[in-house]
Amino acid sequence: MSEFTVHSGRPDATGLRIAVVAARFNDAIVELLVRGALGELRRHGGADEDVEVVWVPGAFELPVVLQHLAASGRYDALVALGCVVRGATPHFDHVAGQAAAGTAAVARETGVPIAFGVLTTDTWEQAVERSGGKLGNKGAEAALTAVETARLLQAL
Ligand code: INI
Q1: Residue 106 Cα, ligand 1 centroid: separation in angstroms?
Q2: pLDDT digits (tens, 9 = 90+) for 105-128
Q3: Do 41 and 51 contact (CB within 8 A), yes or no?
Q4: 62 — phi, psi (to 5°)?
Q5: For residue 25, how far is its CA from the centre of ligand 1 (angstroms)?
């Protein structure tokens, strides 16, 4: 039987240079996402001196700052965090849509992996559930995704 070569990214943050880029809007939630992300990076071997946190005003501003950081060549991966709640946001679709599409475009254009940990929920309660509540912490999940993707790209 033939042997296939299988690639996957190790969940090992040792030595990886990572920036967590967080949108301050709805900061009560986003602080929890940042905390979750930083804890997850530490748990997987990330060193405090290799990890930076960058605050932007809102989720709409994430792509331009991600673009700047990704193009600098200083990071192995980026983690985008934020919280957009539909109920409180008449222009929800624009803010959430541009944050997601812009983030994906930056990752593709620069080759730097960017995990998307921006909550886009209908209600505040749904955001609470995903920022350390009963549905986990999406900031932590995004941080681990960034690590795995950075390792995968190194391995391929
Ligand atoms: N930004 C968010 O990150 N979350 C939101 O829920 C939100 N709401 O509700 O409007 C929000 N708006 C600000 C936006 O991201 C920009 O900062 C603003 O439009 C200026 O460019």
Answers
A1: 19
A2: 999 999 999 999 999 999 999 999
A3: yes
A4: -60, -50
A5: 6
Tell me how far apart the alpha carbons of residues 132 and 69 are, in angstroms, rounded to a whole number. Answer: 27
What are the tokens at 65? Answer: 């700052």
Does ligand 1 come within 6 angstroms of the Cβ of 95?
Answer: yes
pTM, 2 dp: 0.96
C-alpha distances (whole Å) from 55 to each of 66, 143, 148 are 11, 16, 23
Per-residue model confidence (pLDDT) at position 88: 63
* Closest residue to atom 5 of ligand 1, CA basis: 84
CA distance 46 to 20: 12
Alpha helices in the chain (DSSP H): 27-43, 62-71, 92-110, 124-129, 138-155
Pairing between β-strand 77-85 and β-strand 18-23 as defined by DSSP bridges = parallel
- Is residue 23 lining ligand 1, measured as CB closer than 6 Å? yes
SS3 assignment, position 6: coil
Hey, what amino acid is at 99?
A
Closest residue by Cα to atom 13, ligand 1, is 58
- Which residues, in sequence order, are CB contacts of 125 under 8 Å at separation 6+? none
Identify the structural domains of the chain with CATH numbers, from first to last. 49-155 (3.40.50.960)
